[in-house]
Structures are given as C-alpha cells and as structure tokens.
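A student in our group prepared the protein record below, which I am reviewing. Here is the record exactly as it was handed to me.
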Amino acid sequence: MNKSDLRKKYKTLRQQLSTEEIEDKSLAIANRMLQLDVWEKTYFHLFLTIEEMKEVETEFILQILAGYDKEILVSKCDFESCGMTNYLLTDNTKFQKNEYNIYEPVDGIEVPNTKIDVVFVPLLAYDKKGNRVGYGKGFYDAFLSKCREDVIKIGVSFFEPEEVIDDVYESDIRLDYCITPTTNYDFR
C-alpha cells in the first residue's frame, strides 16, 4: 500500500479504539519498552500525545524515563519551516496547545539535536523493514536527519507492521525498533 492509503487505514483503525483500549495498549507498550537495551543512554526525545488523533499515550513512557532519571526532551514545532526545537523537560516547563492541538513547551532550556541519544517517533503505520508513515508533513524525517547517525529511533504502534510501504523515499529515515503491545520489532 502507498502512504496515502495507509494514513487513511490507520486513522480509521485508531478511531475505532476505545479510551480504555488505548490506555491498556499504551501501558503494554511502555512495559515492553523496558526490554530494550537503551537504558545506559541519557537524552531521550519523547513526543507528547495528541489525544484527538488517538495516539499512543506517552505518559507511561514519560513516567518510566523519569523513574530512570533520564534527561527528557520535548519539542516545539515551527510549521513554516517544518522544523522542531527541543527543550529539556523540567518541573518548571510550561505547556500550551498550538493551533493543531499539540501540547508544546512555551520556552525552556534548548538542547541541540546532536545531544539526543534516543527518539520516540510517532507514526500511523510502518512496515517490516522499519519504514514509517507519519502524518505527511516530514517533521520527524527532517528532525532525525539533523540528529547523530547513531541516534536510536523507536516507533510505538498499537498495530502490527504492514508487509511493505510502496512509496518510500530516499529522504525517509527508517526506525531501529517499533514497539507494539505484543512485540518488539528490531529493524537494525
């Protein structure tokens, strides 16, 4: 399937999930994350859930990262340049929703992309090679292209992978892992 068809398919599948299913599956994903060999790393970028899009609830992952005393980074998007600026999450971080209902930090301590060790990547769909389909704006591909080559890219999904995404581009950046409620996929 191509990316456009996959976006439609997985947006529809997500909309069919109840709040309870999202919470249960998100908790299972967070628990499976504990099996990954990433805990010696320091800087973790985490996307904040867009509830209206019925995304994986990242609050559980956030709690685990905080429990491991990791440096957690959250981003603010620039929709004109499709760029992202990362800020260190602290007790003083203030958030507001942007025009797309995404919670973003108002300001804070900016952290360069080159410091980031692990990125949790939002997605709608992915395939068995680690190619992903996002919302189509290219924010994460642009962001990941500015990170270190050894940054660990972890997708999270309620669903299993597609066999193949037909229209993968050279600029698309593959995942290293994708975690579902039942399986950890390793694409390295």
The longest strand covers residues 71-78. The chain has a mean pLDDT of 95. The radius of gyration is 15 Å. DSSP finds four helices and eleven strands in the chain.
